[in-house]
Amino acid sequence: MARFLLPAPERVHVPGLVTRLKDFLLGTRRGRVLSVALVLWLLDKLGLPLPVLLTAPARLVVFLAVLVYGWRATRFVLGALLYKIRSKLLLSYLFIAVVPVVLLGLFFFIGALFFSGVVASHLVNAELERQSERLEDVGRRALDEFANDPAALAAALPARVRELHPEAGWSLICAGRPLVSQGGAPQSAPDWWQSPRFSGLVERGEGDVLRVGLRAPSCALFLDAPLDERLLRGLETRLGIHYVTTVGRMEVREHGVTVQVDTDEALGADREGGRSIRARASSKGMTFMAPLTRTEWDSGKTSDTGLLFTFAPWELLRHLTPGPLNLAERLLQALAIVGVVFLLMYGVALLFGGLLARSITRSVHALSRGTQLIRQGDFEHRIAIKSRDQLGDLAESFNLMAGGIQDLLRQQAEKERLEEELRIARQIQMSLLPQRNVELHGLRVAALCLPAAEVGGDYYDLLPLSDKRLGVLVADVSGKGTSAALYMAELKGLVLSLSRIYDSPARLLCEANRILADNLDSRSFITMTYAVVDLQAGRMRFARAGHNPLIRLEAKSGRTHILAPPGMGLGLDRGEHFERVLEEAEVPLETGDLLVFFTDGLSEAMNPQAELFGEQRLRDVIAGAEGLSSEELKERILGEIRTFVGSAAQHDDMTLVILKVL
After folding, report:
1. Number of domains forming the structure of the chain
2. Are 351 and 450 contained in the same domain?
């Protein structure tokens, strides 16, 4: 078998990296700018005093250069590393196997942390509720015990309240005046408080306090416990939750929504003459926030705030599962065992994946080398088939492809030959149409023929019969392609001969049918309209052999008329029935009249929705052609059809002849 080899590429000398870098930095404008910027940047890094007007642009240029050329270098390195299919397979395996596991692990880890934070937040709120109940219990027992002796109640309160918090405050208000007060407790009951009890977080000048208010028949008792680590010491002892501080995002519920940050800036600092808020973050664990509701004591407005705390999730789980069975440690051990098993399985999977990738890439390399040889024209190369898997089938298909390429080349050459013959046939067919405009005094003619394929079956002709008489012919051979073009050529010669013999359009069509009926294929026929325009007599005689009707625009009335005398296609009947059906018609011609001959390619032009342009749309376009020349009307009709058709392909030949009487 002959070898079709392309010439080998010439060797091109590629300069080294240092040479190319030198040429870029010194030989190009961008390189020189970058060189100056690098020098200024290095001098600035060495501590030399340089003006800011020089160092700032230099840093910007260096930064942009690092971004641009770093990205290019990364793309080059990745392209070099990932050129081999084996590297791509291994990398894709890692992405498929590792990345989802890592993301899933991160998802569960973050979910576990968030869930543990929600649990810890619930425990913080429960502890605050418990401390509030303790304050209320102390106050309720004191009121019940000393209900009739306010003085004894005032004397007994300090000892009982300080058992709960060493810096607790209290106040006893009887008959509208404070009987006893300590630690910043309120001196009077606010007007908005009308219920028997109050319990909640209240904002005080030096910090937030947990306040409980109780009403007796003639007195009101208020107990305050500062919100600090001592109030929540039980959480730290039992669960390892460490108090940090409270932060406020104020959302006033009575008069709209406002935002206000109320974070203690002096975290960890002791205030002189007052209580100490040790707002310290734990050195271990994570920080979370418990949502709280804060009440403004003077107005009764409430706002949302939060209590920051730190905790260690594993410590919290260990505290929540007391007893001999430590669930946290058992869970950690189980996760460690699962992790080791997973790593072992992943290592085995990676080993087998590498072996499979090697077997795949070996076959791919053979295919790549074979395609290179095919590209160079060596169609005799074959790939050795070493396995009967899909890659083996692919190698066999490659061998079959290499053997069939020569057949494809021969078919391509044959196709090009046929296309060249069709091109020549199209040129010959178009040369059969009128090559120049036919001009008669008092008549303007515009015509076009647009085949749907290389060669078509539409045909029109303009036959000057005398100085005042013109024969107009429009025909459509059934089908398209070479056979239709041959019938069209035969029809042209026939009409040229008969037009010199027969003055009557009907007689010409009858004689043409008699001659063509014996020569046309049984599946072929020709539709045709032949008209004789007589400007001296001011009339047009025509006959229609099954063709599309004519459209006449009457200048006087501005109305369009369909001219469709009966007739049947050429070649469908031997003669008698054809002559009996065919009729010849005559229409008068007046100045300004328009006559439009067309084939079904115009009226049956389809848009993407398979809708036909139709004769009615064509009539509407012609009806609006008053004052237009025949050429202008032709362009308008084509424009309307193109707009209607849009992106749909032309499916039939389009032929149009327009006559305008002057």
Report:
1. 4
2. no
For the entire predicted model, the pTM comes to 0.45
DSSP state, residue 261: B
pLDDT of residue 417: 81
**Dihedral, CA atoms, 546, 551, 552, 558, nearest 10 degrees?**
150
Which residues span the domain enclosing 48?
A: 18-81
Determine, yes or no, domain membership for 99. Answer: no
* DSSP at 311: E
Q: 413 Cβ partners below 8 Å, 6+ apart?
A: none
The whole-angstrom separation of Cα 579 and Cα 187 is: 125
Q: Are residue 265 and residue 310 in the same domain, yes or no?
A: yes
Q: Give the integer Cα–Cα distance in Å for 496 and 516.
A: 14
Q: How confident is the model over 233-282, as pLDDT tens digits?
A: 888 888 888 888 877 543 333 434 333 334 443 333 333 333 333 334 44
Q: Which residues contact 615 (CB under 8 A, 6 or more apart)?
A: 548, 549, 551, 562, 603
Half-sphere exposure of 117 (CA within 13 A, CB side): 17
Nearest to 241 by CA among 251, 231, 250: 231
Please tell me the distance from the alpha carbon of residue 494 to that of residue 486, in angstroms, as a whole number.
12
Q: What is the residue-wise DSSP string for 243-289?
A: EEEEEEB---SSS-----B---SSTTPPPTTS--------SSSEEEE
Examine the domain organization and report whether 542 and 559 are in the same domain. yes
Closest to 433 measured CA to CA, from 447, 453, 452, 419 = 447
Q: Is residue 557 domain-resident?
A: yes
Q: Are residues 281 and 333 in the same domain?
A: no
**How do beta strands 560-563 and 550-553 pair?**
antiparallel
φ, ψ at 130 (rounded to 5°): -65, -45
